[in-house]
Amino acid sequence: MSNRKPIIAGNWKMFKTVSEAVSFFSEIKGKAEVDGVESVICAPFTTLPALVEAAKGTSIAIGAQNVHFEDNGAFTGEISGVMLKDLGVKYVIIGHSERRAYFAESDEIVNKKVHASFKNGLLPIVCVGEKLEEREAGQTKDVCKVQTEAAFQGVSAAQAAEVVIAYEPIWAIGTGKSSTSEDAQDVIGYIRGVVAGLYDQATADAVRIQYGGSVKPNNVAEYMGQTDIDGALVGGASLEPASYIALVEGAK
Question: Cytoplasm: is it a keyword of this entry (predicted)?
Answer without folding.
Answer: yes
